[in-house]
């Protein structure tokens, strides 16, 4: 199954609603944590925060006041080491996702 490791890389499997990351693009894993509000798994891919804190997309809670980078829902990304060969592209991964996953 998916393994997210700081220092590894992920590929986005969906576009961010505000364009912060793009489907099919590779990002470094700079940090991992759970949202303090509802334990939603989060990932830091090095996108700087433009305002203080973030609203949780899962429960509406507020977190990350003092963090430099934005936190995103981890499920929007797939670890790259999960891809066995370069021929297996991210489109394959997307095809395998259950319909309605977000
Ligand atoms: Zn939450």
Keywords:
102 residues; mainly beta; 3-stranded antiparallel β-sheet; globular; binds zinc ion
Description:
The protein has 102 residues and is mainly beta. The protein has one domain. Helix content is 7%, strand content 24%. A hairpin with a 6-residue loop joins strand 5 and strand 6. The structure holds zinc ion. Zinc ion binds at residues 35, 37-38, 40, 56, 58-59, 61.
Quick summary:
With 102 residues, the protein is mainly β. 7% of the residues lie in helices and 24% in strands.
| Count of discrete structural domains | 1
Helix content: under 10%
Proportion of beta-strand residues? 15-25%
- How would you classify the helix and strand content by structural class? mainly beta
Query: What small-molecule ligands were found?
Result: zinc ion
Instruction: Calculate the mean pLDDT score and round it.
Output: 84
Number of alpha- plus pi-helical segments: 1
Care to count the β-strands? 8
Order of helices and strands: EEEEEEEEH
The order of strands across the largest sheet is: 2-1-8
Q: Which spans of ≥5 residues are poorly predicted at pLDDT below 50?
A: none
How far apart are the first and last residues' alpha carbons, in Å? Answer: 18 Å
